[in-house]
Amino acid sequence: MSALDGQDAQELQVVAVRAHRHRAPLLRPFVTAARRTEAVEYVVAEVELAGGATGQGSAAETVAVTGESADSIAASLAGPLREAILGRRGTITELSRRITGAVPGATSAKAALEVALHDAWARRAGRPLVELLGGRLEDTLLNDMTISLEDPAVMAGHARAARERGEQILKIKLGHDITEDRERLAAVVEAAPGARLRLDANQGWTPEQAVEIIAGFEADALPIDLVEQPVAAADLAGLARVRAAVSLPIMADESVWDAEDARRLVDAGACDLLNIKLAKTGGLRGALEIAEVARTAGIECMLGAMMEPRISITAAAHLAVAHPAITMIDLDPPAWFASGLPRGGYAQDGPRLRLTGGPGLGLEPMPALADAADGGDR
Ligand SMILES: [Mg+2]
Is 110 a catalytic residue? Predict the structure, then answer.
């Protein structure tokens, strides 16, 4: 059972599907064990329903994670995904299934279109999406701030600045070399006293390295709340070995793309926590399925994101606020973007994120700009 069951009274008709490209420079490079990004290429998907309600979703290029480039996202949206719903009548569930089943993979492109469909649906109903997902607009969540994988002194500087801005939870990117990773973390801890830390190795350690470095952090009693994806995504046995050998909670991220992955991880005893991202699940429905697996298993989830634009992050925030198994968010990407567009959706009072209401995602529509290829959304 999910909150979306029983929401299928109305038949919708999709009368237009559009997509437009954007390029958004970042304020500083975003660096992980898997990639380095200085500007984000992304695609905005638009769905228009009969009666005029229009919704938007977005997908960013993340070749290193989903295998999708901005070109492939645009091609999926202009081809099989558009064909799957354009001119179709159906309930929100039926139309969502058509997107999911249109083509294998292409999870970011599917997420963009599926979110656009849900935004249009909620706008048509005149309600915030969070409420249609079974949640309450007024509930809030504590956000974190990511510190890229850089030299220790650079990471320390970013961590200090984040603390001075009032951030309470820092997500520290590690996973390069365990000797250097220790130096990185030591520099961050010294520079950001009082911060709670989430570590993310992005698959960068072997199980043996992971156990060694995490056990050391535990022995030093560092203020760490969780360790995300210490080892390779496919190495469930390795993940389970790490989890058994240390006390800090282990979170799966790259290992979990859908509900079946989540069940496998739970059955293998491979993690304590799950990181859900719409760009992996292909949208809200797949994400809800994972959250339901987690709820059944008594596991808590984080709602995370790729280095994605504000539309994607707002959709993730609606879902995170709505679902009781999602207790943590890692939704800081908009703080990295030079542009604050589109306006609306959510606001942060310090690190605490709250939805601002309005129909659908509550965002102003993002215009298609003729000069988008030149950084049109700055
Ligand atoms: Mg991660």
Answer: no
